[in-house]
């Protein structure tokens, strides 16, 4: 097949619409949450092992800035992933599958997720 169509392999020049960006970010936050399970399982195991382990985890989360950043990042990823997952479930049910509805749901997803990220930051810090 001899096609005369242009081929653009440079992804940095492609303008992705907001629904595509929220879908990609949903997948990225899923990977972040999967990797973040290592930190979560460590904290859970350590805190349930003994009273001293609980104090260790509490002390790390209270005084270590890096641990607070990790906790805030994981909570933020969880919030966005949850909201975007609800958006995808609504799309699977047939709501907002047109261009206008998809853009509106993507905007709502970003706004609700931003509120959840701020709330998670207030809770962690």
UniProtKB/TrEMBL annotation:
**Which cellular compartments is it found in?**
Membrane
Q: Which InterPro entries match?
A: SQR/QFR_C/D (IPR034804), Succ_DH_cyt_bsu_CS (IPR018495), Succ_DH_cytb556 (IPR014314), SuccDH_FuR_B_TM-su (IPR000701)
Alphabetical list of Pfam families matching this protein? Sdh_cyt (PF01127)
Q: Where are the transmembrane segments?
A: 20-44, 65-86, 106-124
Q: Which SUPFAM superfamilies match?
A: Fumarate reductase respiratory complex transmembrane subunits
Name the domain of life. Answer: Bacteria
| Keyword Membrane attributed | yes
Q: How does it sit in the membrane?
A: Multi-pass membrane protein
Binding of heme, residues:
81
Task: Note how many cofactor molecules are bound and how.
Answer: The heme is bound between the two transmembrane subunits.
- Tell me which PROSITE patterns the record gives: SDH_CYT_1
User: What's a Gene Ontology MF term here?
Assistant: electron transfer activity
Major localization listed first in the record, in broad terms: membrane
Q: Which terms under GO biological process does the entry name?
A: tricarboxylic acid cycle
Transmembrane helix found in the keyword field: yes
On assembly, the entry states:
Part of an enzyme complex containing four subunits: a flavoprotein, an iron-sulfur protein, plus two membrane-anchoring proteins, SdhC and SdhD. The complex can form homotrimers.
Functionally, this protein is described as follows: Membrane-anchoring subunit of succinate dehydrogenase (SDH).
Q: Which family does it belong to?
A: Belongs to the cytochrome b560 family.
Which PANTHER family does the entry link to? Answer: SUCCINATE DEHYDROGENASE CYTOCHROME B560 SUBUNIT (PTHR10978), SUCCINATE DEHYDROGENASE CYTOCHROME B560 SUBUNIT, MITOCHONDRIAL (PTHR10978:SF5)
> Under what name is this protein listed?
Succinate dehydrogenase cytochrome b556 subunit
Natural source organism: Salinicola endophyticus
- Point out the gene that encodes the protein: sdhC
């Amino acid at each position: 097949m001899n096609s005369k169509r242009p081929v653009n392999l440079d992804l940095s020049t492609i303008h992705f619409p907001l629904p595509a960006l929220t879908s990609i970010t949903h997948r990225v936050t899923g990977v972040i949450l999967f990797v973040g399970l290592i930190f979560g399982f460590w904290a859970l195991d350590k805190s349930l092992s003994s009273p001293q382990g609980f104090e260790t985890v509490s002390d790390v989360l209270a005084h270590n800035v890096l641990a607070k950043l990790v906790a805030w990042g994981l909570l933020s990823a969880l919030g966005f992933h949850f909201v975007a997952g609800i958006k995808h479930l609504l799309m699977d049910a047939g709501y907002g599958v047109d261009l206008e509805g998809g853009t509106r749901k993507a905007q709502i997803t970003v706004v609700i997720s931003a509120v959840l990220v701020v709330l998670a930051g207030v809770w962690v810090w």
